[in-house]
Amino acid sequence: MGGTGQGMDRALGALMGVALGDALGMPSQTLPRARIAAAYGRITDLIDPVADHPVSHGLRAGMVTDDTEQTLLLADLMIRSPAGVDDRAWAGALLDWERDVRARGLRDLLGPSSKRALDALLAGVPASETGREGTTNGAAMRIAPVGIATPPGDPAALVARVAEACRVTHNTREAISAAAAVAMTISLGVAGQSFAAALDKAMEAARIGATQGAPVGEADMAGRIAAAIALAGTGREDDIAARIGTSVASREAVPAAFAVVGLAKGDPWQAGLIAANIGDDTDTIGAIACAMAGACAGLSAFPTDKVAKVVAVNRLDLDPVATGLLAMRDRRLAEVPA
Predict the structure, then answer these.
(1) Residues 83-112: b if buried by 16+ CB within 10 A, e if exposed
(2) Which are the contacts of 65, defined by CB distance < 8 A and separation ≥ 6?
(3) What global pTM score does this model have?
(4) pLDDT, tens digit, for every residue of 199-217?
């Protein structure tokens, strides 16, 4: 992967973070911490899943899952339709993706919120209503393109872009506020900020996000994130798992991802390793955490051999994606009155 300039390095860092965190967590996803320890000891590298893995069976070391594939799917749709996310086009893209996953014989299909919403859309429910029960982390896991493509200067505008991307499947305050915090962190990272410097505005975005969508689920995502960051100061991975939670719920997975980056002191690779061992939704927590860390540290902060392996195994070409999203960001910056 190439590209020039800090913005490109940070955008590639966010996208590569999704893929690397996803790939590190792939062998341990859905498994409790004790099962991870029994199966692998401690995960310290990109590894194959155990042969009887309930979800990752058939994958091999370095391969990505739905987190990365749906992130790139959203990025492609945004680049092709820069005026805004078309609800039906997005729903169609997700359904086509799931059909392809089934054809490949894989088990990592649409999450519960997305599946319910898309089934409702096919049954004739308006797109504005389909996502009004979606509180899981599917929106946050794939929101990185919105953060890359949207400048951070107008938090309300950024959250509106997030809500638009969430509408079909995750149109709830819990999911939108969680995704908004992640997107703002990534946007600020692309703008040159450190993870620590991005936290206040990330929580501001979460508070704005909590006013969007259906009033369903967690009402204080900013408070949950702040508590998780404080807990990370103790330096104990097991405390995060026990006290914050690591399930697919946005209220657990997203604060846990923030805590993971804090515990890793902003290092993308270390964040991915912590997430891979933390239990339950390891691949998604890893994807979110590494996307934020990658945006704030840049691709140059990643181990080059690990990047090369994930790129090769998945045949990734992230440069055009980063370039397209940054072009959207530049256009939006140019639209801001002087």
Answers:
(1) eebbbeebbebbbebbeebeeeebebebbe
(2) 22, 26, 29, 56, 59, 108, 283
(3) 0.95
(4) 999 999 999 999 999 999 9
